[in-house]
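Long-time lurker, first post.

We've been arguing in lab meeting about whether magnesium ion would sit comfortably in this protein at all. Half the group thinks yes, half thinks no, and nobody has a model to point at. So I'm putting the question to the forum: if I give you the sequence and the SMILES, can you give me back a predicted structure of the complex? Inputs are below. Any interpretation is welcome too.
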Amino acid sequence: MKYIFDFDDVLFNNTAQFKKHMFSTLAEAGVEEHEARAYYLEVREKEFSLKNFINILFDRNGINKSEINEVYKKIMTECSKFVNTSLIDKVKKIGKENCYIITNGEQEFNSDKIKYSSIGDLFKEIYIVPGSKKEIVEKICAQNKNEKVIFIDDKQKFIEDIDLAKCPNLKTVLFPLESF
Ligand SMILES: [Mg+2]
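Top reply:
Settle the argument with this. Predicted structure of the protein with magnesium ion, as tokens:
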């Protein structure tokens, strides 16, 4: 059996933990939380780049740009504290050969989130896609057509998007509501 995991709010506690830490680190650097949250709502649906986000907020607040990388690092180095440890225990039991990540978003920020969370080595393949996940899910299903493939995501839109006729061996799981 193969397992495809989403990253944000499945393997990684993005909303409950990481974002809180991101906004409080920005507040320490001089960007008020209400301002950062309001701007986040404007840009989050696009390919979110944390570096660009900090850059623009620093600009608006007249904060020295030489601190961008330092603040970025301060946010990212905490990532390993925000992994979903009970799910990671499951991944370890399932085994690297059977586990994949498909996450959606901007390349650098998402690849850094996975890198700093220190869980990348537990997965056979990691994909960061700007849009739909369907092509990669279909590819993994086709490559493993004699096995069941479980696709776990917290967003209905990524699940609905899959063409089930092309993936007869696929089971989709809406996390955390459904178990697998
Ligand atoms: Mg997600």
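For your lab meeting: The chain is about 45% helix and 15% strand. The mean pLDDT is 96. Whichever side wins, do check it experimentally.
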